[in-house]
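S.,

As promised, the calcium ion run. Input:
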Amino acid sequence: MNKPVVLVVEDDHSVRNLITTTLKAHDYRYLTAANGADAILEASSHNPDVVFLDLGLPDMDGIDIIQKIRSWSTMPIIVISARSEDTDKIEALDAGADDYLTKPFSVEELLARLRVTQRRLAMMATDASEAAVFENGELRIDYAAGCAYLHDAPLHLTPIEYKLLCLLARNVGKVLTHTFITQNIWGSAWESDIASLRVYMATLRKKLEQGPDAPQYIQTHIGVGYRMVRL
Ligand code: CA
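Predicted complex:
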């Protein structure tokens, strides 16, 4: 199994170093952010597998970051904070954090929490791959046959439109950024790819949606990306 990419959000240089050194020693890939604005940018553009989040950041409270990320993603968030009151933990977990680690922490515990999250991710991936047919509203995708249907009638999609539809379907409910989509479809994220993406998305929607002004299946998040809505 691939090691997940961990986004480490921590303004304290020494703590950040401790975490990234630990991750590196165990072959994890990681990204870092030292403030809230960078954290949100990294999370949205790189779609990491797990986020380690400090709550006390210079520009923003970590709770706000959890809420922001939760507005478009279910990526696991593990809070690592010096705040040790139960009320702080409850607030973070209620906002959508998956786990809570109190500073000072041991690196063994940090790695153990990460392994638990990995197991959860692996289980989710297995569930998703076992479903050979995706159904959402009147849309059905038969992954094995490589065909999509709407109201039981085949959708005549170009290969790229089909790839786009599958990518959105496999991540149903999540906002996928322009960069994430173009990297998955074309393996790159040039401005020209993003322009092409708009064109393909428009032709896909023409085939999929009843009215172009009221898309039912694919939502646009202006300046961010697209999301398939679970109907
Ligand atoms: Ca801090």
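The first helix runs from residue 13 to 25. Residues 11-12, 54, 56-57 surround calcium ion (CB under 6 Å).

- D.
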